[in-house]
Each structure stands twice: as structure tokens, then as C-alpha cells.
Amino acid sequence: MKRVAIIGSMGQLGTDLVDVLAQAGSYEVLRLSHREVECTDPVSVEKALKTGRRPDVVVNCAAFVRVDEAENRAEEALRVNSLGALHVARVCAEIEALCVYISTDYVFDGGKNAPYTESDAPRPINIYGVSKLAGEYFVQQACPRWLVVRMASLFGRAGSSGKGGNFVETILAKARAGESLRLVNDIRMSPTYTRDAVRALEKLLREKALGLFHLANGGSCTWYEFASKALELAGMGNRIEPISSSDYPMKARRPKDSSLESTKLSPFLKEHLRPWQEALKAYLAEKDHLSSRG
User: Fold this and answer.
1) d(CA 5, CA 29)
2) Beta strands 2-7 and 27-32: pairing type?
3) Is 116 a catalytic residue?
4) Which of 138, 268, 293, 294 has its CA 20 to 30 A from that of 71?
5) Could you tell me if 15 and 61 are in contact, meaning their C-beta atoms sit under 8 angstroms apart?
6) Domain boundaries, the chain
């Protein structure tokens, strides 16, 4: 039975990964929350991964994910997303474990005007993207056996602890409260259901895949389109005003189109991740938000 350590096991992605690996039945899961390991401290990482039976795979889900805050807290973002990744990768190399690093679509600048594949050259335009790309490079340099998985715009049942929930829940809560809704309609991305992403990741682990992969639900949309679909599926008729990103200034620059697709998954997965609309419907059903008409 393969032993898998999950750093950041209490987060939005880590929570679903724990469940999916447990259900698969062929893994022993070591849950490592922030209380058990501080990835920015190499001593803490060594203690967590070298004490007792050592893991065969280490999945690093720990991250500084607050994109706008990263602009003013660059040192902290780099310490978690870059140096933290390096510390984990170095210990993985020492114990001969596979190092899995979770990265982001924000390593791209959004200027391609088409979905990014694994062969596209990254060019981040904000501190968060820089810190995650540096983490990718550190993992590849420090550990002989590595798997870098880029995901985008995650939504899952646990919500993001770093962001205080997820986008879908925020929109539904505001709609129920009767708040006015204004959403950006000129930034495109690939909404990704964490349950789908971790199921695909488990298949990559099972098939002993190595290298760089994009894991995102099929298709792309704007935040306005995503929110509109969520309200439609939930049976809510609230009006959303589409706005330009220039009308909603943010500290960190965002890629205009950071949607992802993969050209490398076919040998490992029978089919790519389902379209984001289907994934959103499944999520809403899981959370009991789905309208009987949905």
C-alpha cells in the first residue's frame, strides 16, 4: 500500500484529496495540517516527513493564495510558495519520495488569447504567479522524481481557508441576502471543481506519471458567466451586472485569459475532466444548492 503525505490536508484541495485517496483503498494517507508541519521551516518539514514510516509520495497543497495581498507581502508569498516548495522537495529527494507540487494558471500572462497548454512558456504578471513559478522550478531542480500540477479557479466543498470560502458560495450568499451583484466580464479562466481535480490527480499517481500537467475542467468563462450559471442552476433569478475589470481595480494584475487545457493527459486518463458547467452542477448538488429544475 502506497503511503501518501498531504501537506495542507485541511484546505480546500487537501480535504477532497484525503477523501478520494481513502476511497481508492490502495493508499495510506498521512494528513499534515499547518499544525503538524510548517513548510517554511526546513526542520519542521524534516520532522514531519522523516519521523516514523516515510511516505512514498508527498503532495504539497500548502500555499499563500491571497493574490492581492501578495503584492504587499511578497516576502511571505515567496517564503511559502517558493522556499516552502524547495524545503519539501529537498526532503522528498532525501527519502526518495515523489514530490507533487500544486501550481496555478497565474504563471501565465494571459496574452495568448487561447487556452494554455503544458508546452507554453510561463510569464507571470503578479507576485503570486512569480512565487508559484519559482516553486515549480525549485521542485524540478531539487527532486529527481517530481509531478507539477497546475490548477485554476478552484471551488470545493471545504472552501479556501486562505480566502474565507469559495467564489460560488460567496455569490450565492450575496444573492440570498439581496445584495447587488457586479462581476467582471472581460477576464477568462477555467473554473475547476476540486473533486474532479483530485480524482484526476489520483489517476496520475496510480499510473506513476511524472512531469508537468494541467488539471482543469473543460472550457472557460468569465467570472460573470460563472456566477450567472451558478445562480441559474440554483434557481435564483438575481440580476448580475457585467462590468469591465477597469471598473473593479485590484492591487494585483490579472491575466486576461488564463484558461488551461492539457495535451499530456491522454496516456493516463481515459477522458479529460468534464466541462465546467457539469462540474458546477455536481458541486451544487453536493452542497444541496441545486434547484429541482437544474
Assistant:
1) 6
2) parallel
3) no
4) 138
5) no
6) 2-160+191-219+261-274
For domain 2-160+191-219+261-274, give its CATH number from 3.40.50.300, 3.40.50.720, 3.40.190.10, 3.40.190.290.
3.40.50.720
pLDDT tens digits along 197-254: 999 999 999 999 999 999 999 999 999 999 999 999 999 989 999 999 999 889 999 9
- Amino acid letter for position 80: V
* pLDDT recorded at residue 270: 87
* Nine-digit cell string for 124: 507571470
115-134 burial, b if ≥16 CB within 10 A, otherwise e?
bbebeeebebbbbbbbbbbb
Q: 10-63, pLDDT tens digit by residue? A: 999 999 999 999 999 899 999 999 999 999 999 999 999 999 889 999 999 999
**Does the pLDDT at position 9 exceed 60?**
yes
**DSSP assignment of 122-171, as one string?**
P---SHHHHHHHHHHHHHHHH-SSEEEEEE-SEE-TT-BTTTTB-HHHHH
The Cα–Cα gap between 205 and 199 comes to 10
- Averaged pLDDT score across all residues of the chain: 95
- Provide DSSP, 47-113: HHHHSSSPPSEEEE------HHHHHH-HHHHHIIIIIHHHHHHHHHHHHTPEEEEEEEGGGS-S-SS
Grid cell digits, residue 44: 519542521
Residue-wise pLDDT for 76-134, tens only, equals 999 999 999 999 999 999 999 999 999 999 999 999 999 999 999 999 999 999 999 99
Q: Which of 27, 101, 106, 128 is catalytic?
A: 128
Which phi and psi angles does 60 have, rounded to 5°?
A: -95, 100
The reported pLDDT for the residue numbered 226 is 98
Cα(89)–Cα(135) distance, rounded to whole angstroms?
10
Which residues partner with 102 through β-bridges?
Answer: 149
* Sign of the torsion formed by the C-alpha atoms of 213, 10, 67 and 288: positive
